[in-house]
Amino acid sequence: MKDMTLSKPARAVGIEITGVNLSYGTTHVLKDVALSIRPGEFFAFLGPSGCGKTTLLRLIAGFAQAQTGRVLLDGQDVAPLPPWKRDVGMVFQSYALWPHMTVAKNVAFGLEERRLPRAEIDRRVAQALELVGLSPYAERRPAQLSGGQQQRVAVARTIAIEPKVLLLDEPLSNLDAKMRVTVRRELRSLQQRLGLTTIFVTHDQEEANTICDRIAVMEAGVVRQVGTPMELYESPANLFVANFLGSANILDERSGMPMPAGKRLVFRPQHAALSAPEGAALRGPVTHREFLGATVRYAVRIGDSEILIETPFQSGSEMRSVGDQVGVDLPPRRMLFLPA
Amino acid sequence: MSSSRSPGQIALALAIALFLGVFLIVPVATVVYVAFTEKGGGGLTLVNFLDFGRTDLFVRSFWNSVYVSAMTVVWASVLALPLAYLTTRFEFRGAMLVQTLGFLPLIMPPFVGAVAMQLLFGRNGSVNLLLDEWFDFKIGFMEGLNGVIFLQAIHYFPFILVNLSAALRNIDRSMEEAAQNLGSHGLRLFRRIALPLALPGYIAGASLVFVKVFDDVATPLLLNVKEMLAPQAYLRITSIGIDDPMGYVISVVLILVAVATMWATALVMKGKDYATTQRGGGGLARRKLRPREQVLAYGVVILILALVLAPHVGLLLLSFATVWSYSPLPDGYTLAHYTRVLGDSSVYIKNTLLYAGLAATIDVVIGGAIAYLVLRTRLAGRQWLDWAASTALAVPGVVLGIGYLRAFYGVNLPDGTPLATLWIVIVLAIAVRRLPYALRAAYAALQQISVSLEEAAENLGATKARTVRRVVIPLMTGGLLAGFVTSFATAAVELSAVLILVQSNSDAPLAYGLYVLMQTPAGRGAGAALGVIAVLIVAICMWLSQLAVDRSQRARGLDI
Predict the structure, then answer these.
(1) CA A265 and chain centroid, separation
(2) What would you report as the CA-atom Rg of chain B, rounded to the nearest whole angstrom?
(3) Quick check: A224 and A241 in contact, CB under 8 A?
(4) Which of A299, B287, B397, B503 could form a disulfide with B497 if both were Cys (CB 3.0 to 4.6 A apart)?
(5) Is the Cβ of A100 closer than 8 Å to some Cβ of chain B?
């Protein structure tokens, strides 16, 4: 692996995004977005569809123009650069493999555009294909490959140009569930080997949690919180983040629980336990019971709201029935009071 | 739909097979057979083809036809490429107008405008008179073969435009963005990504143009160009007689060229179905034109539009002109030509409406029946009906006409008149020529109907025949109507088969009348008036067809 330049960590590049506002007509797609992505980081834009995450990615690639704000790549403002001069590799959601070219031709494209000598192109195409394990398929057409293989061609085509950063637009969405798990591990290990700053756009919290170092959670064009997967789960900054990553129970003061004005009580279903109703701050009737194997999930009505409580299942443990009055036992350190 | 093989369906299939056999396969087979037999009914021989190869006139005509067809493709591409590129790649006002041009060749076949174009662009036509006066030179737009190329390119470039634009629009924008992301841009990007992806569409359009020009009889003849292959076939049969083998040999060559072109096209297109539109933004990303580019773009578009409209404008002027020669515009204007054609020449119009109406009815009935048999039954060999009907595409009109003449001349009716001289034969020839188009329309209409709608009817107790009548036909109406109108419109201006088959003026349709009148300076005005009427008939039909399609789509939109 001595001359495998592609597999050596390149000098990683950071991305600074400040004060970005972007509108299409009257639709305000990105609102005052600011992010700092560290060199070599695997970073996710996570959010529901329409939250602006893909637009933000396209802004970095040069396919969208912001009305205000700056995008700095390695300290350099990229605004004046057209897409073809930015050196940011983008893997499209649809892969966008050119059907009139072979796999090898697809991978060679960016190198040819850079007018590299033929021998150098051939060498780097071979390397890129080897890196994604597709060397035997060099002369195939994209249509002759499976979805997972096509995705790897798209990645190979992009990393062959040794981009400053790698942008992945929902790269797993066109794969079946089993492939998704395999491919996301491959992407992670490839990113680690290359040491390439990578941005991963997804609406799937599990994908983001499993492979990314840090995540920006977006909603309606706004970055709601940035942090590691664990930080976001343990201490969400707002109700949206709490709800979007894992399930969360949300209660207001009508539940009978004292709380600061304008805040809501938030806690995870597995952090509460059921107790006797007498003397409990939160109590109500059981409305549903679901047996999930390792856990039992109860739904309990508290005032107007319904909360979920998951208790570990052991044989012989006491089961509640629908209609039973129960109390909810919640340790204070598990209580989060978040702005409504 | 497992056991759909009722006696009724078998009878229907046999009837269609009989029709296609008698009116398509037998005449064409007769032509081929005669080409390979010695004159006067000897054994099989290749001597006729050797004669063809030894006759300078035929060899010259063959290469002239190849040259004219190829050059027409080149010039049609020159006209179509910028329009397709501008309307799909840029934010371009008037894109709709440019795309509407796609219907112009259907509205007016090239021979209709031939004489008018001579008056506008000929040696002593308007344009050259003005050029001569102002700049002291003339351009030989209409000289010899150039005239045919010029006229055909103007008429047929929309076939390339429509196919190429559709192909460009079917390219997903991520195809281009991926290339930009990897460092490509500008013309190089277009050449490496958009153009190759759109190539299949271009080739489809170009091969269509090539075959159409190669088979055209009337346009070269009206421009007084005789040394081309299709006109030679016509002249041979009409001047020397139906016993002369050379007309048949030429016919076989015409069929071979058409088949070879289609085969080569299919070969090139194999494995190149590049439709890449996926979810998320179809079509190429559109760019704004810079001011200087805008001036250039609109200049090109206006020039092309002017060329495309020239035959129509010329025809209109000619139809109102008293005298028009050696002057840029007619000397005076009159309504006399219209009074004449609406008076004693009105038989042409009446015949046209009758023939086109009958032919279109036959096409829709047979096309609909074939579509149903192929898509909804399991009859053995049903695909053959489709293939047989579609072979009509490869048979030039002049060849079909010659085939009818030869095959049916010997068949006498009880009163002794030969079958080939009856006007109904003209209708049948036109019907067979247009059948492939009606068939495609019927296919499209039937494919949009879910089989479960029919199964639901059968489940509720309707028999197959009643299901067809109460469910299938009502749902297909819009599509079939569109097929009818398209067949009608194109049948109304069909000439190459008609030219051979018309026996007397009283049986002739409008296109034939126009052809005859245009031959003499005195008849030109009336010919042009007939042409304007033909254009109007076809334009109204096109509009009605569009209306029918829109309507049925809207109705279906409500249902589903």
Answers:
(1) 26
(2) 25
(3) yes
(4) B397
(5) yes
Query: DSSP letters of B448-514?
Result: TS-HHHHHHHHHTT--HHHHIIIIIHHHHHHHHHHHHHHHHHHHHT--HHHHHH--SGGG--HHHHH
Q: What pTM value is reported for the model?
A: 0.78
At residue A239, the 3 state secondary structure works out as: helix
CATH number, domain A249-339, options 3.40.50.880, 3.10.100.10, 3.40.1130.10, 2.40.50.140: 2.40.50.140
Chain-centroid distance, C-alpha B283: 28
Is the separation of the CB atoms in A260 and A337 below 8 Å? Answer: yes
Q: Could you say which residues from 43 to 82 on chain A have a Cβ atom under 8 Å away from some Cβ of chain B?
A: 61-63, 82
Torsion of CA B49, B55, B60, B66, to 10 degrees: 0
Helix B423-447 × helix B397-409 angle, to 10°: 130
Convert the pLDDT of each residue in A55-91 to its tens digit.
999 999 988 888 999 999 988 998 888 888 888 999 9
Distance from CA of B262 to the nearest CA of A (A): 22
* First-residue to last-residue Cα distance in chain B: 22
Can you give the pLDDT at residue B279?
42
* A61/B174 touch (CB, cutoff 8 Å), yes or no: no
Residue B307 makes CB contacts below 8 A (sequence gap 6+) with: B79, B154
pLDDT of residue B535: 85
Domain range list for chain B: 1-33+350-510
CB contact under 8 A, B182 and A96: no
CA angle B455/B461/B467 to nearest 5° reads 55
How many A-B residue pairs are in contact by the CB < 8 A criterion? 75
pLDDT at A10: 56
List, in sequence order, every beta strand (DSSP E) within chain A. Answer: 15-24, 27-37, 42-46, 68-73, 76-77, 88-91, 165-169, 197-202, 214-219, 222-227, 249-251, 263-267, 273-275, 282-291, 295-302, 305-312, 325-329, 336-339
Question: How far, in Å, CA of A121 to CA of B231, rounded?
Answer: 56
The domain segmentation of chain A, as residue ranges, is 5-242, 249-339
Q: Residue B78 corresponds to which tokens in the numbers above?
A: 């020159």
| Residue type at position A299 | A
Q: Which fold has domain B1-33+350-510?
A: MetI-like fold (1.10.3720)
* Stretch among B28-32, B139-143, B193-197 having the lowest mean pLDDT: B139-143
Task: Note whether B280 contacts A84, CB cutoff 8 Å.
Answer: no
In the CATH scheme, what is the code of domain A5-242? 3.40.50.300
- Is A99 touching B (CB cutoff 8 A)? yes
* CA dihedral angle for residue B266, residue B270, residue B273, residue B274, rounded to 10 degrees: -110
Cβ atoms within 10 Å, residue A111: 24
Q: Transcribe B185-254 into DSSP letters.
A: -HHHHIIIIIHHHHHHHHHHHHHHHHHHHHH--HHHHHTT---SHHHHHHHIIIII-TT-HHHHHHHHHH
Rounded CA gap, B282 and B172, in Å?
5
Searching chain A, which residue's CA lies closest to the CA of residue B189? Answer: A113
For A157, the closest chain B residue by CA position comes to B182
Q: Which of A63, A93, A110 sits opposite B183 (nearest CB)?
A: A110
Least confident of B58-72, B202-216, B437-451: B437-451
Asked if A63 lies within 8 A of B192 by C-beta distance, the reply is no
How does pLDDT run across B344-391, given as a tens digit for each residue? 778 888 888 899 999 999 999 999 999 989 888 888 888 888 888 888
Q: What is the pLDDT of residue B273?
A: 65
In chain B, the residue whose alpha carbon lies closest to the alpha carbon of A106 is B179
Which chain A residues contact residue B181 at CB under 8 A?
A: 61, 83-84, 86, 88-90, 158
Residues of chain A with pLDDT under 70: 1-10
Token look-up 């020449």 returns: B345
